[in-house]
Every structure is written in structure tokens, then in C-alpha cells.
Design a protein that fits this description.
Elements lengths: L4 E2 L2 H9 L5 E6 L4 H16 L5 E6 L4 H6 L7 E6 L2 E7 L4 H13 L4
Parallel strand pairs: 1-3, 2-3
Antiparallel strand pairs: 2-4, 4-5
Length: about 110
Amino acid sequence: MGKPMHVKEQDFETQVLKANTPVLVDFWAEWCAPCRMIAPIVEELAGEYDGKLKVVKLDVDDNQGIAYKYGIMSIPTLGIFKGGEMVERLVGYMPKQQLKRKIDAVLEAKAS
């Protein structure tokens, strides 16, 4: 069963931008209540999409350079990366089914 992996600025390029599969990045912080609310959903998604989607968490307080580079102004923000680019940005808490629809749309989209 897949589990979210914690990444830092040093391994972001390797783990996210150069990944062979699409990557869901959970931009979060310890003090963020909505981040804590969405965390169990992110955990479930990691298991459900194991092998099809890599799921990682990036603490924006500890990795401000990456947060700045991708314009993360509000958290939680979930970014879906494909081929080294953020192709979908989901800001704020949302129910699991809504997240799954967005993820499925990215996974089903043909690589251009």
C-alpha cells in the first residue's frame, strides 16, 4: 500500500520533476488546520493510486523556495505534476471524490 513520501527542496527535482509517473504534491504546514483535515484523504489516495500516481508531501515552512517557485500562497494546495510541469492546482480543502475526479482527469489525459 502506497504512503505519501516527505520531500524537501534538495530532492524535489528527483522525486517530483523527474518522476516516471504523475505526482501529487501536498503543499502543507504543521500549523494549518485544513492541511490536517485533508491529510487522511491524501494518505488514502496514496494507497488507492499506488503504482499510477506518486504522492508526496512538502512542508512549505521548511521548503519556502519551492513554495515560492510555484506561487503557493494558500495551503493546503495540491499540485499534480506530470512530465516535470504542474498541470493541475487544487487550493483548499475538498472532499475525496472531488479530488479523485481531478486526479483521474489528469491520469486519463493523453501525454502531449
